[in-house]
Design goal:
By secondary structure, this protein is α+β, with helices and mostly antiparallel strands. Helices cover 42% and strands 15% of the residues. Helix 2 (64-71) crosses helix 5, helix 2 (64-71) crosses helix 8 and helix 4 packs parallel to helix 9 (215-227). It is globular and about 55 Å long.
Length: 268
């Protein structure tokens, strides 16, 4: 019992210490910056989080947020379509991105001495992303194939998708992050362009940097890179409320499978 109490208190104390070391700043264009200097390893991560998840997809065009995540790697007038990958690899870094219900996030992990490079890359594509109609159509096909492989061809994933669609009615959690197939086919180049202009705004973004750097020296670098990006207006976040659920809801999916799979869900 004493050991358990000690561990709990130690964890709480460590968390409080980390929070105390965090530096936060809001730029004039609305961008929020969070920095945590940590020299335990000679590496650092820079992350840009946009409040632009699947809940922001328009009705009838689910999957747009995730589709757009792919388009963020199509380059800018300054950094060509293949240059982003080359530049990060040349400094032995790695990068990736992901989309959730609430946000799309982009990150680069690099040696601390090279952290200014991804900062420049991220600021550039926040402001100057440039993708063609042909590239949009290609990535849409990629996402549709991804849906086939990861959801439609996977019985468990397919059932989870149906459970969410049954549990939620008016809320945007009704549709999957990857989108319905018919919706994906319906998305157009103009939809992606509007999504970029509306949601990839500094006032709708959050930058996190953690690792081996001097925060007092890095903050002016981030401020200079992102501070000049103009903000149109922070998009309104709508709150959707489902009508009261009056009883148990059930969904049955029949698929070829070796074993049955059962899910019970509770909205909380």
């Amino acid at each position: 019992g004493l050991v358990g109490i000690f561990l709990i208190l130690h964890a709480a104390g460590a968390r409080a210490a980390i929070i105390a070391d965090v530096t936060e700043k809001h730029l004039a264009n609305g961008l929020k910056i969070i920095l945590l200097e940590n020299h335990k390893a000679p590496v650092a991560t820079i992350q840009v989080w946009y409040r632009a998840g699947s809940r922001n997809d328009p009705w009838g065009k689910s999957g747009l947020a995730h589709d757009f995540e792919h388009l963020m790697f199509k380059g800018t007038p300054e950094v060509g379509r293949d240059d982003f990958t080359r530049i990060v690899q040349e400094i032995s870094g790695n990068f990736n991105a992901f989309t959730s219900l609430y946000y799309a996030a982009y990150f680069e992990n690099v040696a601390g001495i090279h952290i200014e490079t991804p900062i420049r890359l991220e600021a550039d594509r926040m402001k100057n992303l440039d993708f063609t109609k042909a590239e949009f159509e290609t990535e849409k096909k990629v996402v549709m194939e991804e849906r086939k492989l990861r959801t439609q061809d996977q019985p468990e994933a397919y059932l989870m998708e149906q459970v969410a669609a049954t549990a939620f009615q008016s809320q945007p959690y009704h549709w999957p992050i990857v989108g319905w197939m018919d919706d994906l086919a319906r998305i157009e180049y103009a939809d992606a362009s509007r999504f970029y202009r509306r949601y990839y705004d500094p006032a709708n973004a959050l930058i996190v940097a953690v690792g081996d750097f001097n925060k007092d020296a890095l903050l002016p670098v981030i401020t200079k890179a992102f501070g000049g990006i103009p903000s149109n207006v922070k998009p309104q976040t709508l709150s959707y409320v489902d009508p009261p659920q009056m009883g148990e809801r059930r969904v049955l999916v029949t698929r070829p499978a070796a074993l049955p799979f059962v899910v019970a869900g509770y909205p909380v």
